[in-house]
Amino acid sequence: MGLALHRDQGVQYTSQAYFDLTQEYHVSPSMSSPGCPYDNAAMENFFGTLKTECLYRAHFSSRPEVEQLVSEYIDFYNFERISLKNGLTPVKIRGKAA
Fold first, then answer.
1. Tens digit of each residue's pLDDT (9 = 90 or more) over 4-54
2. What is the residue-wise DSSP string for 37-79?
3. Would you give the distance in Å from CA 46 to the centre of its chain?
4. Residue (of 47, 59, 42) closest to 94 by Cα position
5. In 3-state terms, what secondary structure has residue 23?
6. Which of 34, 40, 37, 41 minimizes the C-alpha distance to 4?
7. Any idea what DSSP says for residue 2?
8. CA–CA distance, 10 with 94 (Å, rounded to integer)
9. Residue 1 confidence (pLDDT)
10. pTM score, two decimals?
């Protein structure tokens, strides 16, 4: 599939110019459903946690450092970080749902 960029339905993201730019860079645009603000809730929650627990605590001198730390954090988040809500990691939660 490649890179998908999910956005809300703000006017700047629904314009033809934005669509053309995504096509130029081989990005698949994605949007929330009209009147459904919860489409983004899970990712907004994750990115808020990523910033708070990982990115805001580090100082970077290169892009590869950022990429490495984010990759390590995603692994930690999925396999080790215990949710206070249910006491499970995301991988264990998905395993129970299967």
1. 887 777 777 788 998 899 999 999 888 777 777 676 778 888 899 999 999
2. GGGGHHHHHHHHHHHHHTGGG---SSHHHHHHHHHHHHHHHHH
3. 6
4. 42
5. helix
6. 40
7. -
8. 32
9. 54
10. 0.65
Q: Which two tokens stand for residue 19?
A: 């669509």
Name the residue type at position 40: N
Q: Which residue has the tokens 């929650």?
A: 45
Q: Which residue has the tokens 């998905």?
A: 94
Which residues are 29's β-sheet partners? 5
- Buried/exposed code over 29-61 (b: 16+ C-beta within 10 A; e: otherwise): eeebeeeeeeeeeeeeeeeeebeeebeeeeeee
Tokens standing for 95? Answer: 């395993």
DSSP helix/strand/coil, 7: strand
